[in-house]
Design brief:
6-stranded mixed beta sheet; binds ligand 2P0; 38% helix; Ribosomal Protein S5, domain 2; disordered N terminus
Amino acid sequence: MNLQYEVITADAMVHLDRVFTAEGSPNIAFIKYWGKRNDKLVLPYNSSISMTFAHEAMRTVTSILFTKKLKNDVFYLDGQKQNLENKDTAERFAVLDILRSAAKTEAKALVVSKNYFPTASGLASSASGIATLVFAANAALEIGLNEKEMSIIARQGSGSACRSLFGGIVVWKAGKRTDGKDSFALQVFERDYWPEIVDNIVVVSQDKKKTPSRLGMRQTVNTNPLFGVRTLSAERRLKLFKESYRRRDISGIAAHMMADSNEMHALMLSTVPSIRYLNPISYSLMDAVEELNENEGKIIAGYTFDAGPNANIVTVNKYQKKVMDMLKQFKEKGSVIYIKTSRVGDGPKLLGAEYSMINEDMLRPR
Ligand code: 2P0
């Protein structure tokens, strides 16, 4: 077999020197992923479930161009050229090598990405970044992967990214196989299944987190004897959460999401060394949501926190004013920087050429 010929044929199918731009959104997990059974392939111990944010509220826009003019990949994030020698960035960028190998090309990529939300503040920037990158590259390389296949690749860049390949409510199945082929995301409820749902993203800090999730998860798995019960507990709760969502039962989903957030943060706290992402304002927000529910005599809102102090407070249209009134006191005291409200959104989509963020200058060696 003539390998050279094969490469040339494959490259002919790749859109070289043409910019593809896509937008995608982060997701918030209601039943969380925290701990890998395989670090390299990013295989989780338990399944997780999330909501993809609407693009209007939170999004990443990524332009990509494959070219023979570059000797190495080049990556700009929020206007800053990134160092792809950095181990963490390189590990995540390895998704491009998987895609290149599927397309049988060695062309390098110029990637320009912009996040319309604070990076590295526990708001899942890696999830939307990698999901959008995989989506745009799949189009540019004309590989024709479907969302499930893209989710398997995105997962290897960042676990939570696999869930952002879909809109609506999404499950990442943990899978059992050692090669990861059964560890992928799928949509379990369409975006409009329950249109009344709203998530209030309450930003209390824009600082970079102290412990990267990847390191924190490894420490938890390696040192925490409580981790043994986590897998079963999360799987069980995920079923209950899905059932409540199916019934459009706000009290049910809110109770399950609060329990799961608390279980994950308890695991983090009892890891050695102890990992603490929540700050005093996070705890005050938990108190305030619980007080609101007590005053109502039923659960009308639920909180969940990722690897950071920012809260996500979920409710339905009917109770949204009560939640915002409760949050007003935090804003007045200056303890909340801003609140973004999002509905359930769509998965990534391609944008027109006018959205390209790539210019000739970026291709020049310096
Ligand atoms: C989640 N988080 O389910 C959980 C809840 C944070 C807390 O997925 O190592 O960036 O790249 O797979 O996906 C954040 O971790 O970690 C995360 P890697 P990722 O959303």
